[in-house]
Here is the input.
Amino acid sequence: MSEAPPERVSTGGAAMSPGRRALRRLVRRRGAMLGAAIIAAFVALAVLAPVFAPHDPLQTSWGAIRKAPSAAYLFGTDEIGRDVLSRVIWGARASLLAGLVSVAISMSLGVPIGMLAGYLGGWVDGLISRATDAMLACPFLILAIALAAFLGPSLTNAMIAIGISATPIFIRLTRAQVLTVKVEDYVEAARAVGNSRFRIVWRHILPNIVAPLIVQATLAIAAAVIAEASLSFLGLGQQPPAPSWGSMLNTAKNYIDNAPWMAIWPGLSIFLLVLSFNLLGDGLRDALDPRHR
Amino acid sequence: MLEYLVRRLAAIVPTLFFVSVLIFGLQQLLPGDPAIILAGEDRDPSVVEHLRKRMHLDEPLPMRYLYWIGGVLQGDLGESVRIQKPVLELILQKLPVTIELAAIAIVIALSIGITAGIVSAVAKDSVWDYAANVVALWGLSTPNFWLGILMILLFSVTLGWLPASGYVSPSEDLRGNLAAMIMPAFVLGNAIAAVLMRHTRSAMLQVLNSDYVRTARAKGLDERVVVLRHALRNALVPIVTLGALEFGTLLSGAVLTEQVFSIPGFGKLIVDAVFNRDYAVVQGVVLFTATAYIVLNLLADLAYFVVNPRLRK
Here is the structure.
């Protein structure tokens, strides 16, 4: 009896690598693409701030104090005559830098520690998990405020404070992922053929837990941007006269009745950037995690 | 139940220990001699000497921790350098204001979040679902201090309906108190409503697909009864538990909201302490907050255990 020819099944890109398949799924998500486009625009603004900013962001002008938006000053001027648009453009640098550096700090601390806890287990895991619980018990912003207060007010210290405060989330996520992956057959096989612990973790476990870490990192950048703006709003981040969206809002609240434009643009910028990272993070989660599809 | 309680209590002891180490460790981040820094700008040698003795700075670090934790266990969180009052007293003095703010915020968050979550789940993939998701994304992405400023601009500056800032005790003037609290409470509740909406939506979607809801529908029950009495009642359990985890967001948000609206609460206490370099107050507030968070989580876990019969088996 001859076998029936195999049915032609649409592979939906089965020949593609998982990374490319995820990218294709991501590209189809309009929200995520919108988020990515807005982030790209902010990155371009931040990098090319000297080109895009129409005025010097620190230049004061006593003849142009709290001027409403006009052709000369598209977003108006602040309480000492500085151009709000130029300060918003330069402020993008502080926000993006804070978002990226803080999350880089969290990941470079959290991922190795989480892998250690998940892979070694036992008392190492117990110790790390209890310390993580302790950090998670302190509300994120309150811990960041306390750390920034003790370290001293500056953008660098704010980034360190935010990075440390967000670390336990990465420890917990990495640990959970390692616990799932380390019992997979391919890890057992790698162990059976005599690979070292380091090689198993580095070559076989880490590449398989990257997807959820990327998603978390994107959402963590959104939280870090808000946290930096919050610390700067409280006077613990970027120090004046250097522009930062948070510190601009702190000043703007005192002039809300006669210069509302001072508050609208920096706030809208924070909102747009955070929204974009949230949209991209949601899209990445849907594209990378099959359970969310 | 007793066994579960003992197990949970045993688990929080090491966590509390690590919390205390973390908060004690904050002091070690101060660059230079803590006694000189804490003595303020005058750096009066007698004050420096007094602080050095009080903080046991001439002793090894583990001994200093033991002295500190010994005091904490007896309710001594230190003394405010600026106000010269015990930190615990200051916290307890400011706490009622923040509790009132948080309570109103939670009511607002629950009303908006749960309603939007139900609508979104029942009308999945409709315009309502889309709108609710957009509102949730807005809530998650809006910095609450900016929302506060915008609300002041609209309701105080433009319309003149509500006071822009300040606080009136409810015992003095209930109406004035509510007028002063409604905007900050809305600002604070906004982000939590977004989180609750997402939790409610996913919990409701799960419950609406379960067998007993299908049975209720098959019996011919009115859809409203099915959704509100059969589905929501069961979906609420995880929502309330997850809601308790939002306590941290609530307190973090209160710090900023109280700053925008000049409300003399717990959040303003830590910000003022930071600027007055009143480090004992900063440590005390973080310790108090973390302990409250751990206790609240324990209570939420116990509540979940009590209301969920499957866990008691």
Summary: The CA atoms of residues 63 and 125 of chain A lie 63 Å apart. Chain A has eleven helices and no strands. The radius of gyration of chain A is 24 Å.
